[in-house]
Amino acid sequence: MASSETAPAAGQRTRGLASFLRSQMRNIAPFLTLIFLSAFFAVASPSFATIDNLGNILTQVSVTGVIAVGLTFVILCAEIDLSIASIANVTGIAVAYFTLQESYVNIPNIPLPGVAAILLALLLCAALGLVNALGLTVIGIPSFIMTLAMMQIAAGISALLVRGQIAYKVPSLITTLGSGSIGGIPWIVIVAAIMLLAGHLVLTYTRFGRYVYMVGGNREAAEYSGLNVKLILGAVMIISAVCSGIGGMLGVAHFGSAQQNEFDTYLLDSIAAVVVGGTSLFGGRGGIGNTIVGLFVLGVLNNGLDHVNIDSFLKILIRGLILLAALIINVYAQRLREKAAE
Amino acid sequence: MPEGRPILELQGITKSFGGVEALRGVDFALHPGEIHGLVGENGAGKSTLMKIIAGVHTEFSGRFLIDGQERHFRSARDAHAAGIAMVHQELSVAPDLTVAENVFLGNQPTNALGLVQWRRMAREAGEQLARFGIDVDPMSRLGDLPIGLQQLIEIARVLFSGARIVILDEPTSALSPPEVERLFATLRRLREEGTAIVFISHFIEDILRVSDTVTVFRNGRKVAETASAATTKGALIEAMIGRGGEALEHSYTDDLMLPRPSDSQVVLKVDQLSLARSLKDVSFEARAGEVLGIYGFMGCGQQELSRILFGKLKPDAGTLVVEGAPKTFASTAAARRAGVALVPESRRAMLFHQEPVYKNISISILDRISSLLLKPAQERDIAQRQVEQLQIRPPVVGLDLGMLSGGNQQKVALAKWLTYPPKLLVLCEPTRGMDVGAKNDVINIVRDLRARGLAIIVLSTEPETVLSLADRILVLKRGTLVREFKNEPVSKDRLLEAA
To answer: What residues of chain B have any CB closer than 8 angstroms to a CB in chain A?
Structure first.
């Protein structure tokens, strides 16, 4: 699942298996976690390891998956985006706002044709991403603070649009992609898979993808190599916002409603998926492959805990502990790799 | 020379780093009420000796006596407790704290409850600084003051900390002439009070003016100790560089004839460039097929100049003209597109240690070889050619850069720019820390690039580097160009003399 190919060099072979494994710790550890968790729940509950349940898990992680694509770009650049869930929420609400609602929904909205509603919603999330980008690169606000402000701004726009009400209707295309299925496979899973694949292809095979890794790996060196670092950082912030927006629209269709605070849990889940998968918080290491493993770890954990007889309040604590363990591995993997490189 | 019992005495000090001897059997004595100047080239051993005295280096052999008693410091804290204080070359202040907090750092006056007495601290800091001739509001933020003033405040803090032995490493490099005068007046007053002061500097005039005794280091040995009044700048430079066949390398002690200035096309014209306190009215031209050397001491403004040429820093005033077109670079990317390339003095600053060699070589030319999609096979081919041409070892482009030796990494840093050569190549300290073989390789590469018509600027604090490469040499001193050598004999002595 390594996203940056490991070069089959003579020197590396001579370093021996042990140091190779050490340098690949970040990719191996999440995979072992996934296998371990799956095996555990398969033994603990007969209803876990079934085809039906696999479908459930895939559906459950789809919205997180779409949001996590963009976040992977951001974290690879050693930045963070805390506004993803709020932007997802406001985009989902916006697409409903521009759709004709039933008469009992008391929102002073502006009904438009479906295509226009979708385009306007996409424009909105891209614009919010642009504000993040400008704040980070032109003004120089750290992304942690900038996106914290954006989290509030997007939540504020959501509140103004729905005014405490709930909207139900979204354009039919979004309804199909969010809650329909084809040949037994939910469209939302297909969309998530396509987005993840596209993210992987961009990161691995395009010039822009290389720049993302290089800026994340050593920002100073990227600048001294004559790369336009600000442009690249700005671009990843916009990509993140647009992915969040798409995830928000699909999520609204999937849940069947658009309302305030609907996506709050997705901030932590998306960050957890990227980091648990082994993408380095220090930038430059990891990729979509890691994010997919991270998504499955979270999906299996959330789903599996429902299949075993466990205090539902304890589930929250367990998730927190697993996240902590992943963070520890993340930081150690970075150190081991630095040692292996020296 | 001062008589009486020394406050500090070192006997036969030897110190090595990884098998390389930095100090070989050095004796050194310091007396109360003495200002002792220390001179020598980079790497001669001055700083190593001072770090031993200040408790930074604790592993060494030889005897270490204070007031005639043998001591062995285990840390800088021990040295501090024994009354030894050092001002390091790099500024180590807390820019976000107030001037008063910096003066009393770690030693703030507190009341019975352990709370800081701000008013008393401000008053006392103000009084101390006033004795030094510094008139600033003690409650202003230190980082808002000019660099020279910050440096003076740091020196003042150490001088008034009650230390009996004070070590100053290059204290004047960031100071303006009136500030240097204030520092000297204070040093002289402390000398009257019996403090022993060690003063390290590249500025030999400064040393001669303020010190009582001068010690000269060369290659880890003490080669001369003399009363300052009884020596001259020329004699000291000669002692620093050494005549005779001691050095293995070409020592550039004899005159070298610079060629007639080239009249080829002007690639870069710099006019009246100024940057805060770092650079003042710097103007020069760089021509195609010419290597322009810029020599000066650490902190003379070279680093800032190179960053301005590559769009990393914006000058306060002045213009850059590249091939006749005025430029204000908004980013390093703009500078690269205009045909300017920079190799900074730190390899870490321009290389990706966790990425393979070929990605390091291709990063600056990706937009030339691929549009949307990468072409890894072509990247590897290009990298392979560079690796063979520059004889980078091992010649494996897939190897992570971090596995290469320092000299080979430096070659990779050059290789980045060579596939599509720039119009202007700016090299900072291109041979620093290299062995003789790697140095020669780099010299040959630069000569080859000159033959291909590039304009090359070499900035260095090592006279040998500039002398081995340059066709024309500018000397930068405290941010101002003070001398141009062209079409005339030049040697290490003459360069040092000018700086």
So the answer is: 310, 312, 331-333, 335-337, 341-342, 344, 348-356, 359, 363-364, 366-367, 370-374, 394, 396, 398-400, 402-403, 416
